[in-house]
């Protein structure tokens, strides 16, 4: 009653054993593919972590550098500006990691929060009544009167260009893991299971437990079984080319490091622009939001909390170098994996599975 290992000679197998063999080949094939995938997956996961650590290090440096701007140049608003600065860099971090947000919304939200502070602490430092309604009116007015000139839009443009490549690379690395995981769990067809049993276990039914498959026979069976996986070859090569393009973009015109460190200067220019146009802005705000209460004398310095000064240049240089090294190392490794899906059958038929150094092997029907 054998269905797979039918042979003229007497056999020591049963139909139940054939079913066990089918379960065994499915399990072994999954384990073999997992073993092949392990190094590639390990490299990608390792680089996802390394890139994220380098991103975070650069973001922390740029955030501290931006915070120090307020402490050194705009002390009256340093304490209140801390939260909008923190929110801006949190939004940038989330964007790089693939969150459903945009650079433009993050930057413009920051400038919406900044304008009430600039208006009440720098342009009109005597304002005491900064109620929620008045603050909200200032936030909404910012969008109409554009107190920061072209600088807010320029910041959006610069950051969008550089962060785009970083975001896409982050998404692409996650996609690579998904593809690899999918190949591990690709279901074997019934025909494939039977072919694998015939190749690996049918010799056992004749007591030939030491005979292994012929190389050519193994390749034919594996190529048939893994046709769906090898079909990924063209897309995988294209994927590697895309990774190469993105890493080059990050290192050239879309330099993430330069864009992040430039945030401080963009904000400074924007605030200076608003101060220079203070009288015109005040006239417009008074018409739209009304006149707030004024207090004579200067603002007390009790509210000012020292912000950590950005003295981490060494950290930035190290993070910058680390990111560049990781890019090069990663893309060189990935380029070597271009043929990963095309050569999977050859790699599975390598090693102990087949008979290489002997003239005697199993061809699916007999020992030859």
From TrEMBL:
UniProt keyword annotation of Cell membrane present: yes
Top-level taxon: Eukaryota
Entry's Gene Ontology BP terms: cell migration; positive regulation of canonical Wnt signaling pathway; regulation of protein localization to membrane
Membrane association type: Lipid-anchor; GPI-anchor
Subcellular location(s) of the protein: Cell membrane
GO CC list: cell surface; extracellular region; plasma membrane; side of membrane
InterPro entries in alphabetical order: Glypican, Glypican_CS
Keywords from the named record: Cell membrane, Glycoprotein, GPI-anchor, Heparan sulfate, Lipoprotein, Membrane, Proteoglycan, Signal
Function of the molecule: Cell surface proteoglycan.
Similarity field: Belongs to the glypican family.
Protein name: GPC5 protein
Organism per entry: Rostratula benghalensis (greater painted-snipe)
Lineage, highest ranks first: Eukaryota, Metazoa, Chordata, Craniata, Vertebrata
